[in-house]
Write a structure and sequence with these properties.
Elements lengths: L2 E6 L20 H7 L2 H5 L3 E4 L18 H20 L2 E6 L5 H12 L2 E6 L20 H5 L5 H4 L13 E4 L6 H8 L4 E3 L1 H7 L1 H15 L3 E7 L21 H13 L3 E7 L10 H20 L1
Parallel strand pairs: 1-2, 1-3, 3-8, 4-5, 4-7, 5-6, 7-8
Helix pairs in contact: 3-4, 9-10, 10-11
Length: 301
């Protein structure tokens, strides 16, 4: 594996306030993970942090998305850092923040070539503003990066789409509402909700993705990890809890072959809210499993 660079993007711009006059706590995630030796265990060559613009909670009239202007500005700053890390041959591990950080990361990759996306999430995040109950970009990020929605968000610097639908695997959703799933089922994405993933098998799902990367001759791929893909029993410290989810054994089975593949460009971690895990019980386990996966991949490559 290339030398690790940790990029901290502590944004909560993609989420609505959990209650009046209180910003979502995900912005504290980089500092929280450091407290539990995430950085120390990975021993990165570089650590960089970009602070986001101020949280406004305002829904933009053009996009129908909360904090749109701030998200766009932030995405452009993210893009510059991620692209510089990739050009310098580093492996970026991005700590969010909420899922809207995907926008800047995929914008960076689009400027470098044609990349795939393995989207590991307990939700599809593939809906339009009119279907959203929160108007938050964190629930629409996959739709945005694949070109759906107002051009202000989907066509930053004329790069629409940041990733093509046919190059995306959307894996792990367990919100089985018919209207919610309709957009993703009608798209060109390869969609594996949790039931289908288990029915088909993790190995076949991941292998199909890696085979697509090879057949299409893509420059590489990015991995999105929303921790709410994990079983609610082992990871309840998220903003939108849902029953069931991946065990840590299943989570590891998915990530291991992706991390070992030579075309992985980097990955991001989102949504773990320190305010929802005050003792660190759930964070400790996540840090242990995740850093072991990364370090094992480093030694095997």
């Amino acid at each position: 594996m290339k030398s690790i660079a940790i990029a901290e993007f502590p944004s909560n711009l993609g989420l609505k306030m959990p209650y009046p006059n209180h910003e979502p706590g995900v912005k504290k995630l980089p500092t929280w993970l450091k407290k539990f030796k995430f950085h120390e265990k990975l021993n990165p060559l570089i650590v960089r942090c970009i602070e986001p613009p101020s949280y406004s909670n305002i829904i933009d009239n053009d996009t129908g998305v909360r904090n749109s202007t701030e998200i766009i500005v932030y995405a452009q700053h993210q893009e510059k850092l991620i692209r510089s890390l990739l050009v310098a041959n580093h492996f970026p591990i991005v700590i969010g923040g909420d899922c809207s950080i995907l926008i800047g990361n995929m914008l960076a990759l689009k400027k470098m070539g044609t990349y795939g996306l393995f989207f590991l999430d307990g939700h599809t995040d593939f809906i339009w503003p009119e279907l959203s109950q929160t108007s938050g970009a964190a629930g629409m990020d996959l739709a945005i990066v694949s070109g759906h929605g107002n051009n202000k968000l989907t066509n930053i610097e004329n790069q629409k789409p940041y990733v093509y639908e046919e190059h995306i695997w959307c894996v792990g959703n367990r919100e089985y509402d018919e209207e919610y799933e309709k957009p993703v089922k009608n798209s060109a994405l390869s969609y594996y909700d949790l039931k289908r993933l288990r029915r088909v098998s993790i190995r076949k799902c991941v292998n199909a993705f890696l085979e697509m990367i090879k057949k299409k001759g893509l420059a590489g791929f990015w991995v999105h990890v929303d921790v709410d893909v994990l079983n609610d029993i082992v990871m309840p410290a998220v903003d939108s809890r849902t029953e069931d989810g991946l065990s840590y054994a299943e989570f590891s089975e998915i990530l291991r072959p992706l991390l070992l593949h030579p075309k992985i460009a980097g990955l991001e971690i989102t949504i773990l809210d320190p305010e929802l895990d005050p003792t660190g019980k759930y964070t400790k386990k996540f840090v242990s499993v995740f850093t072991d996966l990364i370090n094992s991949a480093k030694h095997e490559k």
